[in-house]
Amino acid sequence: MAFQYLTNVPLDEAREAYKEALLTEGFGAGTETVPVTGSCGRITSEPVYAAICAPHYPASAMDGIALKAGLTFGAGETTPATLTSDQFIVVDTGDPVPEGCDAVVMIEDVIRQEDGTVRLYAPAAPWQHIRQIGEDICAGEMILPSYTEISPAAIGSMIAGGVTEVSVLEKPVVGIIPTGDEIVPPTPDPAPGDILEFNSSIFSGMLDGWKAVPRTYPIVKDNKEAIREALQNALAECDIVLLNAGSSAGREDYSTEVIASLGTVLFHGIAIKPGKPAILAACSRKPVIGVPGYPVSGIIVLEQFLKPLIDCWYHTAPAPQETCTAVLSKNVVSGLKYREYVRVRMGEVGGKIMASPLGRGSGVVSSFMKADGIMEIPQGVEGYEAGSEITVRLLKKREELSRTLVAIGSHDPLLDEISDLLHASDPSLHMSSTHVGSMGGIMAVKRGETHIAGVHLLNESDGVYNTAYIKRYFPKGGVRLVECVGRKQGLMLQAGNPKNIKGIGDLTQPDVRYVNRQKGSGTRILIDYLCKKEGIETGRIYGYDREEFTHTSVAAQIASGTADAGMGIFSAAKLYDLDFLPVCMEQYDLLIPDEAWDTDLVKKLLEILKSDVFRKRLEALGGYELNHPGEVREHF
Amino acid sequence: MAFQYLTNVPLDEAREAYKEALLTEGFGAGTETVPVTGSCGRITSEPVYAAICAPHYPASAMDGIALKAGLTFGAGETTPATLTSDQFIVVDTGDPVPEGCDAVVMIEDVIRQEDGTVRLYAPAAPWQHIRQIGEDICAGEMILPSYTEISPAAIGSMIAGGVTEVSVLEKPVVGIIPTGDEIVPPTPDPAPGDILEFNSSIFSGMLDGWKAVPRTYPIVKDNKEAIREALQNALAECDIVLLNAGSSAGREDYSTEVIASLGTVLFHGIAIKPGKPAILAACSRKPVIGVPGYPVSGIIVLEQFLKPLIDCWYHTAPAPQETCTAVLSKNVVSGLKYREYVRVRMGEVGGKIMASPLGRGSGVVSSFMKADGIMEIPQGVEGYEAGSEITVRLLKKREELSRTLVAIGSHDPLLDEISDLLHASDPSLHMSSTHVGSMGGIMAVKRGETHIAGVHLLNESDGVYNTAYIKRYFPKGGVRLVECVGRKQGLMLQAGNPKNIKGIGDLTQPDVRYVNRQKGSGTRILIDYLCKKEGIETGRIYGYDREEFTHTSVAAQIASGTADAGMGIFSAAKLYDLDFLPVCMEQYDLLIPDEAWDTDLVKKLLEILKSDVFRKRLEALGGYELNHPGEVREHF
User: B474 vs chain A: nearest CA distance in angstroms?
Assistant: First the structure.
């Protein structure tokens, strides 16, 4: 059952060696001829030369009359030239210049006479207002070099140059074979243990963007013969094959063995994280990549190994990557043995760009969706300290970062609603929320990392929310506390309250499993306070150290039956149809540093807080009390 | 016949008023529900919330054994915990954690005993190596806000969150109606006067890139009733209609009249160039745009008026435009009455970015293909002087500019072949050539605007090419002259030489029409010299002041029958099957300033000049003599 990766090869080495090996075997695109009208975005396989000139005849460049320039020589203000009707021909823009004519006079300069003649008060220069043959493109001229992406204007140029068909590189067909006994197609109702198959959809989206053709095969069970058959079939139909999962070394991982039986495994195990168990193999000239099952690993492996092969296929240079320098918001430790890719959220606060590492689990696909950038930690580097300047590869436009409202602090589902309203009211604005609890929010404001922080911190001595904490942490002021909402806190319980929990006191009962919020969150501080007040020793509460980061995730644990109770807000309980035992009404406010106050982002936020639509959204969530949302409670 | 535009409205004013008017009429996207698996790149029409948690069950995060953590409390190096086979269950990564278990121990830390029990030398913490329900996504959480583009990772997140269908904004269907008696479908063999219909293909390519669905209708003749019928039909099937051409005011331009009969014309005539005759109209909530017939005007009108409507449809912010500062290479004069868009070629030479205006004719579609950027000259500004710092909107990646070999100088078709070989040998390298003649090339080198300049300048006194001119223009040196090719110059004549031209002396015959090269080109200097030597007065040569910029375009005029003779190189004559009367062998060399010498671009160029494949390409063109191409003749 123990496993061993064959190799732990550095990324660049593996990638280069893999590419070289494939090129030696003849990896590369075939060509096909397509109509020019349908060739937009395709890549030329050879130079395209014009077949005809454009214009292909001498054309009038104006509405006017065509004539022999010589007839007008000597014409002037006082000595007009008069042309009889057989000495000129009326032409519109684009009309051919008639045989024998060598100039066009604009209609505005033509004085028609009653008798059908025209007068001209200036001479015409030979070839004036005539688009010469080939003015745009000459027959035989190279319109496009090889290996060039065909733009809309290039299509126009080719058609103008009499080219109706063009030879382009075939698109690579990439087969995706999902494997695994536990894998099931997308469904809103999976059974426990079922793993939803979404990797093929992610990969297909990536491949579309890379001008490759994804072809997803049906899910194959963990059976050596079945996998072998599926791989053989895909190899017959595709240019590249991705065998998804089974690349690790669990009890039922057959990928290496199967691939080796049909081709050559060059590497199994690359010194990257995530993505370590990748398999790089070739069946004659066709690449076969064993892609790890976790989505984040899969995405990294496709970016690092498949994309370079597609660049190679199309003879295109790797797209330049937009990077930027950012300040790391917390320590990141990495292993020395591999290069690590860390997804980060980013925000620009007070002119400084911050990067906060997102969850590093390979299973957390939402981290890729939320990520604004990727930080690379090279092999041999132990990590970076908070405050370090790091280089981040941007996944979004740099401009978008400056237009993103950063919220770091206490969680409430209302933040998602604000995010939606903000972007809907101005599509250039975005919001990014990170849930680190109220104390985390205060610290983020202090470090200048956030525009706003949700806080709900009860001062035990006077029962007032937030102000005491803010005074303590911001003795010099520089922040505003903006009223947001009152919200109902209480114990969330399994529907029907089967354990008959009547209050905090019942949490110590032996059959009650509690699920807690993380230290530093306002809700944790509240339950700590309540227990202390009632003289309950928290060590006696089973699960008191089981920590979740949001109200919603606490509710989710209870709804799933792995816990019986947890402290949280009414809207979270309602979302999961849980029972709810109200404990108190608390004040959830927004802390905003002065440096963020005058920004468009905060102005728009305040508008939203005061809006009717915000009020309606919170009514739908339930458990909120809105008094004067958006008003400054105190400027410290 | 005289025409008048209804308006000359400033761009921004027209655009805003048009958008407002359409929104008031109800312009905007409907929604449709699509499978998540096919939703990549679509825009959400409402927030997407997770239906289930991901993971949707507590899952093992490791290959190992699942157990009750309590059984291991107290385990240590010397006091292992022993578990009997009914106290643990073997699990693989992703397996559900069995009922009653609350921790997973990695297989590496499990010591199996002969009797089927296992030993653990460390305690397990509750919930260790377990992916909690909702670790990735919690049911009810907002996965995506409204009006957000669906990324591959977002597809994964939605499927993981149990979402299988998603409501997205419909794509706008944009009808394109080409009109005009003279317009014909793409063909390599058009009759004189036929205008090839390629605008619809250009527009379709642009629309694809904007996530709109182009629908091109058959070409409609210049007939009021036919156009009206086509427009009505398109309005019934599309969300937006482009009526292509007929928006000017020539003899057969019915667009305004027809559109006005079916809806409201808001503007006819916008203060932009190109694009002035655009019509902005609406038939109830559907935009109808009268697009000028010239391709460049059409592209500008679509970018300036259609793209903002599509952004509005999708509730997306306009994409940030990459701009850069560049030095203008020559004076550009513009009218005060309009905003002008000038296409420019760009190059980075010696760290300085240069911008050279391309042909400004609206009919020159290749100018858009060749353009690296667009310079805007605001309404009310007369233009800019050479040497001014201007802002250019980039059409290519900034990085691509730095990897582009700039060639400004004398024309030869071999430059296109070098361009092709350069990009094929290294896909990150590009070449941009501008044909301004040998003297223009020398001046471009002097001004630091080019990496290389093709030159073939005969010194009359000693009959030696190039060196005398270079010494004169670069008295302080700083340039290298690199040998390129010898090439045959001569008189290109109509096939069969019907005018029986035997030499330069015959050019003055009254029935001979000459076509010349522009002043400053090496070929013009050559013909001037030859005429002088033979005592021919050039004023007596008909067409001597008819100037073309390339050998190919001179050949094209002769082939088309509008001229009988022109000076040029053998390969151009061969391309058009012309007769050729050799006059001399001349040396075509490349002038390279020292500051460009050590660049990758020039190094690769020299490699290509010395290569066999370059020699073979030139053999195919014909008329060249290769001695030591790529060798430095002299370092000045």
Answer: 33
Q: Given an 8 Å threshold on Cβ–Cβ distance, is B192 in contact with A140?
A: no
pLDDT of A4 above 50: no
| B37-69 confidence digits (pLDDT tens) | 999 999 999 999 999 999 999 999 888 999 999
E strands, B275-429, are 279-283, 286-291, 323-328, 332-333, 339-349, 352-357, 373-377, 383-384, 389-394, 404-409
**Cross-chain Cβ contact A92/B250 below 8 Å:** yes
The answer to whether the pTM exceeds 0.90 is yes
Instruction: Report whether B409 contacts B482 (CB < 8 A).
Output: no
CA distance A343 to A355: 9
Cβ burial of B22 (10 Å; 0-12, 13-18, 19+) is buried
> Are B105 and B65 spatial neighbours (Cβ–Cβ below 8 Å)?
yes
CA-based R_g, chain A, Å: 35
Q: With an 8 Å Cβ cutoff, are A365 and B157 in contact?
A: yes
Q: Which helix (H) or strand (E) holds A264?
A: strand A264-268
CATH 3.90.105.10 fits A31-54+136-169, yes or no: yes
Smallest CA–CA separation between B288 and chain A, in Å? 22
Phi/psi of residue B346, each to 5°?
Answer: -130, 160
Q: Give the residue from chain A lying closest to B559, CA to CA.
A: A133
* Residue A111: DSSP 8-state: E
Q: Look at A162 and B47 and tell me if their CB atoms are within 8 Å.
A: no
By Cβ distance, the residue of B96, B187, B205 closest to A155 is B205
pLDDT at residue B250 greater than cutoff 80: no
Arithmetic mean of pLDDT, A220-242:
96
How close is the nearest chain A Cα to the Cα of B126, in Å? 8
- Chain A residues closer than 8 Å to B394 by CB: none
**How many angstroms separate the CA atoms of A547 and A192, rounded?**
22
pLDDT in tens, B370-413: 999 999 999 999 999 988 999 999 999 888 999 999 999 999 99
Residue A88: both structure tokens together: 């000129």
In the predicted model, is pLDDT for residue A579 greater than 60? Answer: yes
SS3 A24: helix
Look at residue A583 in the predicted model and tell me its pLDDT.
95
The SS3 call for residue B600 is helix
**Cis omega (within 30 of 0) for bond into A55:** yes
For A129, the closest chain B residue by CA position comes to B361
Give B59-131's CATH code, choosing from 3.40.190.10, 3.30.565.10, 2.170.190.11, 2.40.50.100.
2.170.190.11
CB burial of residue B78 (10 Å; 0-12, 13-18, 19+) = exposed
Residues in chain A closer than 8 A to B614 (CB atoms):
none
Q: Torsion-angle region of residue A473: left (phi > 0), alpha (psi -120 to 50) or beta?
A: alpha
pLDDT digits (tens, 9 = 90+) for A63-104: 899 999 989 988 999 999 999 999 999 998 888 999 889 999
Residues of A in contact with B363 (CB under 8 A): 55, 61, 131, 135-136
ipTM of the complex: 0.93
Domain residue ranges of chain A, discontinuous segments joined by +: 11-28+172-314, 31-54+136-169, 59-131, 327-395, 433-635
CA distance A147 to chain B (A): 7
Chain A residues in contact with B160 by the CB 8 A cut-off are 196, 198, 365-366
Residue with tokens 């198959």: A197
Q: Among B159, B319, B420, whose Cβ lies nearest the Cβ of A186? A: B159
Both tokens of A551, joined, read: 């109200």
CA dihedral B531, B534, B540, B541 (to 10 degrees): -50
B43 to chain A, minimum CA–CA distance in Å? 12
**What is A433-635's CATH topology?**
D-Maltodextrin-Binding Protein; domain 2 (3.40.190)
